[in-house]
């Protein structure tokens, strides 16, 4: 037995604080592996605890297999939860820990066969007669998993189950969890702040920010078509390059994307996507380029859809199988911390406080005033002090202001300060409006397609 979980406009309010979970609507299919992903404090655990019945729902509806379950006692929900700090009973052997839920369920049943089968699945047969304190972190977390699965619940709820485990083991356990839950075909809701974990595990990933669902979709889809700049920045390593841009479309001239001191010419005839960018004419936008969108190459080597740019090597980072080259293209980084959290329907988020002008708004004057000069103007441009996404991704911490991360073969050795010709693949270029919503590639509704 496995069950479908459906949340409709579910909110959680703790006292007078703003909603910790804000009108979340999400349908999780029976047997699906869904990951809730977002930065710390965004409300992931709260969602999980509301599904489990450990936290009251302030507003909205929770349905299990279509039945309203807001007030269903936790014990009737047939769910098992695994936490970050695997709470095992220290004075019980691992065997008894795994068998404990079975004991609660049916004290007269012989638990042996099911405990053994569970231990075999998890590769922990050898440690069953030891105590939790005699195990390594990875073994303890396997026992905790064992305790969750021995009872064969209809739903697994996992709250950052791997965050206390060292990196190498985490990757191993990650694939074991994926295999195990798929084998069992049990609906799983998995909480993490680690985008790599989310991408590797989820059938679908739901990205949450500040209690608000930003986007839900298959890992490939949210990577390829992030609905907004937050999702784009949160997913993918190295982090997407985000720079301030400006759509320049004078009458009878070609359209360009101004990136500070350089312009990206958009090829004529304009694609439908690029034609739609005319709406953004005269407004600041954010241009996103994933590391795979840019390569080092001369204009003469451009393939169809690639346009040239130049930059100066700021740093290189040798990784063995590849090198990451940080190239300064004389642009301003886009700081998205002050962007309002876009709602799924695209309407701006209401605030009680007086709206502050967004960073982009404040920078608008400056961006407009900058005239595209010679191919490269380095050094003198004003730099923003920090990047809010740096803390999400260790690789991002090395990204300086306005630098592009370009992947190159490790054999290519580039000196700091060297000028390099770049080719940008327009198929991998994103444009976000000043609210952070993706406008190119155009969302289906902008193209007038049925969604
Ligand atoms: N019991 C509680 N009382 C008051 N505030 C809480 C409580 N639990 C969580 N919160 C608040 O709700 C927000 C979401 O928390 P949480 O769901 O734990 O986030 P996450 O799991 O994504 O890190 C945070 O601002 C947190 O401080
Ligand atoms: Mg949490």
TrEMBL record:
This protein's record includes keyword ATP-binding: yes
Keyword annotations of the record: ATP-binding, Nucleotide-binding, Transport
Highest taxon above the source species: Bacteria
Transmembrane segments: none
Signal peptide: none
Region (Disordered): 337-358
Keyword presence, Amino-acid biosynthesis: no
GO molecular function per UniProt: ATP binding
Domain (ABC transporter) ranges: 5-235
SUPFAM superfamilies xrefs: MOP-like, P-loop containing nucleoside triphosphate hydrolases
InterPro entries (UniProt xref): AAA+_ATPase, ABC_transporter-like_ATP-bd, ABC_transporter-like_CS, ABC_transpr_MalK-like, ABC_transpr_MalK/UgpC-like, Mo/tungstate-bd_C_term_dom, P-loop_NTPase, Transp-assoc_OB_typ2
PANTHER family in the cross-refs: MALTODEXTRIN IMPORT ATP-BINDING PROTEIN MSMX, OSMOPROTECTIVE COMPOUNDS UPTAKE ATP-BINDING PROTEIN GGTA
Protein name: ABC transporter ATP-binding protein
Organism field: Streptomyces amakusaensis
